[in-house]
Amino acid sequence: MATARMWRIYACGWLAYLCLLAIALQADDLRHGHVNWRASAPVFWSLPQALFLALLWPLSGWLERKRLALGSLICVHIVGAFSYPVAIYSLIATINGFSQALGWYVWPILYGAMTYGVVAAAFHVVRLNATRQRQAIAIQQAHALLVASELNALRNKLNPHFLFNTLHSIIALTRRNPEAAETALFQFSDMLRYVLDTEKSGSDRVTLEDELRFVRDYLELESLRLGARLKVEWELDIDAARIALPALSLQPLVENSIKHAFNPHSRPGLLRIRTRVDDEAGALTMTVGDDGPGADPAIVKQSNGLGIRTVERRLQLEYGARGILSIATAPGAGFVVTMSIPLESA
User: Fold this and answer.
1) What is the dihedral of CA 177, 181, 187, 188, to 10 degrees?
2) In angstroms, rounded to a whole number, what is the distance separating the alpha carbons of residues 77 and 209?
3) pLDDT category, 82, cuts 50, 70, 90?
4) Model confidence, pTM
5) What are phi and psi of 278, to 5 degrees?
6) How far apart are CA 249 and CA 207, in angstroms?
């Protein structure tokens, strides 16, 4: 498409030039009310020149493939710039006879050399621009592949992490309550199907409704182990149900609260899960918080925990600056994670 457009511009440019040249050559004769076709001869001689100079396009391609140094490229075109008009006007002189003094040919030859230079430079600029566009596309594709690879790696980290922690909870439950452990295994099979379905589809996008269903299954499994200690408070925006987000975005945040607020303690605790659509900001905000012991923010920043860090990195790769994850915590003040992503309909 770009090459076709270039040739259209080239043809229109020469056509406009030939029209202006014809008008300039006929200006005096037209003023007197007649046309002198002999005076228009340079117009007809310029048409073959336009066709001849079009050969600079394949020449510029050949020189590009040779990867000549800039100095060598300039030398080639200097030779071509003067060889071209000398050859053209030698042919004209041979056909019409050498009726003009040699000095008369100096300016036409210089003019022809400049025309050659303009056309050659234009063709090289077009090729250089096309090369830069191809390189930019290649860089974008390489970056997209890199991002996709890292996203897959992060998702592959989350899946075993979730499986290990969930199985560990079921094992702990088996020792105390075998019947509850059996129920937990059935619950776990449904959760595992969710994880496998996202892998099978080739896309990690799910609706918030599906992710919340998965979180509910996870909490039901954990409630078999924690019993009355686990209390959950839901505050859900019904308008957010069909918004798309990466699978296993919310569950690791819930799992983090279970791990740090409930597992180390025997007292009851409250887990709060909230979703809210901000139409003005064009974002979905999800909050997972607990009333557990909290932590020192400085220690949290230095933590090597996999869940929250992986979710945060996925947000950066998926949404750039529009994917935000923030943590609010302090010793004795609970732990609250807020995640914000751009609105996407599934």
Assistant:
1) 140
2) 66
3) confident
4) 0.55
5) -105, 95
6) 11
